[in-house]
Amino acid sequence: MRGIVSVLQCCSAALLLAAGSAMAEPELLQGTVGQAKVLVELDLAKPDEVTGRYFYQKYHTDIALDGALDKQRTLRLSENRPFFSTKSVPMQWTLKQGANGRWTGRWASKGKTLDISLSPVALPPARPDDLPALDELRRTSPYEYLRLKGLSLKKDRQDTFMGYGLQWWVEPVSRIRLFQLVSSPTAMDLSAANRTLQNRQWQEVNSYFGCLSGARDRETEFDQTVKPVFINDSVLSVSLFTSYDCGGAHPDFGDAPLNMELATGKILELEDVFWLGKGPSIHYERGMDNLEAYSNYREQLFAPWVVDQFKRLYPELMNDDPNECNYQDPSVWQFSVWYFEPRGIYLGPTFARAARSCDEPGDTVIPYKTIKAHPGPVKVTLPE
User: Fold this and answer.
1) What is the pTM of this model?
2) 3-state class (DSSP) for residue 38
3) Which interval of the chain is the signal sequence (predicted)?
4) Strand spans (E) along the chain
């Protein structure tokens, strides 16, 4: 996140959150279209601009709904209407609301009609062992929560990495893969790390369906390459590189690594293990109060320091030729992608979309000797 958030912006965000919490929640319905089971979400807050989505439980992929609720309480909806289109589209859904929140009606398309029957969904009670990603969705998006609860992970291949046994798991619909740890060189409890890995896998599955949902009926791409890059008895780093086209103006790609403490499964931020500032390290995740200080630290201290280090370590890379990638620009290192690797901590630049090909410069690694000279508050064991 670039730039500094002003007090006015913070106040505006708080007001928007307060206003959003006062709005009616979307209706969550389950039932059938013909004989097929569906889950439906409808936002009826604006009767003349009703929006929603649904999926067939056999396929799990969203179909967008748009339409209006007239004064006679008849709801008419079209499917996957193109964004910003002013063309008239057929209304495939016609519904009437009955008692106890039930909706009944008809789906019609190309001369075919099917009966629709929907009723409100009662969420199952929360479970204490629910993963954090699922627990958050249960509170913020019950529709997406129920979609994921209808899916499961299947065992895939096994392999080893740096002496640790890996069992890969795949979610068959999205084809999202991630591993869990099944053995280690020395006896240790791997359950917390595996819970964090499983949690991240479900987050990626949800991102896959979110990408498809945003594209409506346009072509989409969501290809992910996952590989472990470092593990010892203290930390684990995993690269999750995704190429995606979610129906926007341009496709995109990027790495979103997972870095954690192995024993606790705690996700690590760079400032946990490497800190150039004075006083306690700053995490922007802790809230808006720290965002300005965090941004200032990254912009004024961290990024210029990285440029100076890489000028010394990788002089052939650090040129300012306007026809090439300008790695001397501190702003491209301000919010670096990072992960542990055998020789040190890898830092990857972040360029604007037009220069995104510059995001992969190669082995831009800060050696562990330098990292250890600037430790963060979390004590981790790193190679020499």
Assistant:
1) 0.89
2) strand
3) 1-24
4) 27-33, 36-43, 50-56, 63-69, 74-79, 93-97, 103-109, 112-120, 154-161, 164-171, 176-183, 221-231, 235-245, 252-255, 258-261, 337-341, 344-348, 365-367
Other beta carbons within 10 Å of 216: 18
3-state secondary structure of 14: helix
- Which tokens go with 139? 């509170």
Q: pLDDT tens, position by position, for the chain (384 residues)?
A: 333 333 333 333 333 344 443 456 899 999 999 999 999 999 999 999 999 999 999 999 999 999 999 999 999 999 988 776 666 678 899 999 999 999 999 999 989 999 999 999 999 888 888 999 999 999 999 999 999 999 999 999 999 999 999 999 999 999 999 999 999 999 999 999 999 999 999 999 999 999 998 877 777 899 999 999 999 999 999 999 999 999 877 788 999 999 999 999 999 999 999 999 999 998 876 555 788 899 999 999 999 999 999 999 999 999 877 677 899 999 999 999 999 999 999 999 998 877 777 888 888 999 999 999 999 999 999 998
For 124, counting Cβ atoms within 10 Å of its Cβ (0-12 exposed, 13-18 middle, 19+ buried), the class is exposed
Q: How many CB atoms lie within 10 A of CB 19?
A: 9
Residue 41, C-beta contacts closer than 8 angstroms, at least 6 positions apart: 26, 27, 28, 29, 52, 53, 54, 143
Contact 30, 121 (CB under 8 A): yes
- Inter-residue contact 237 to 341 (CB < 8 Å): yes
Q: CATH class for domain 124-267?
A: alpha beta
The residue assigned the tokens 């004064």 is 71
Let me know the angle formed at the C-alpha of 121 by 119 and 123, rounded to the nearest 5 degrees: 170
Domain 25-118, CATH: 2.40.128
Cα–Cα distance measured from residue 133 to residue 174, given in angstroms and rounded to the nearest whole number: 17
Are 353 and 359 within 8 A, CB to CB?
no
- Please, what is the end-to-end C-alpha distance for the chain in angstroms? 33
Q: Is 59 exposed, middle or buried (0-12, 13-18, 19+ CB in 10 A)?
A: exposed
Q: Say if CB 179 and CB 228 are below 8 A apart.
A: yes
Euclidean distance between CA atoms 74 and 76, whole angstroms: 6
What are the structural domain ranges in the chain? Answer: 25-118, 124-267, 272-383
